[in-house]
């Protein structure tokens, strides 16, 4: 049941990314270009997402366990540190330059888009480079 739920929710998420325009790199770059030809339509997508998920998160927070799992899976780190700030900045720069982030990249890959494959290879290479650097430093 867990795998079927994950598949169905993943398909719903991917469909939402396509329908909203979040999987369109040109639309994302237009939204992030505040000083050029700004396309504000994705702000409505984000507003709708917040309006929908905020009450759901509040409802879920009151539960002792999730609906489809035995326990909650949450990150262990609770604070904001230098690594989080730099990682967030690099994520944002990559998103702005490519107009793609990991979720839409998987959707675009499913549609056979070569730019998504290039993005995912670069992302995995960056993650591997970070791991390698961390092991060398520590």
UniProtKB/TrEMBL annotation:
List the transmembrane segments. Answer: 41-61, 84-110, 116-133
Q: Name one Pfam family in it.
A: DUF6691
- What InterPro entries does this protein map onto? DUF6691
Question: In which domain of life is the source organism classified?
Answer: Bacteria
Name the keywords, alphabetized: Membrane, Transmembrane, Transmembrane helix
UniProt-recorded name of the protein:
YeeE/YedE family protein
């Amino acid at each position: 049941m867990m795998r079927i739920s994950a598949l169905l929710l993943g398909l719903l998420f991917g469909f939402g990314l396509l329908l909203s325009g979040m999987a369109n790199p040109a639309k994302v770059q237009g939204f992030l270009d505040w000083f050029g030809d700004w396309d504000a339509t994705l702000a409505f997508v984000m507003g709708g997402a917040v309006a929908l998920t905020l009450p759901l998160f509040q409802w879920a927070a009151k539960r002792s366990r999730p609906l489809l799992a035995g326990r909650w899976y949450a990150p262990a780190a609770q604070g904001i540190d230098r690594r989080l700030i730099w990682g967030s900045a690099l994520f944002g720069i990559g998103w702005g330059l490519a107009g793609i982030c990991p979720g839409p990249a998987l959707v675009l890959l499913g549609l056979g888009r070569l730019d998504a494959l290039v993005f995912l290879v670069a992302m995995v290479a960056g993650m591997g480079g970070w791991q390698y650097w961390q092991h060398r430093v520590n």
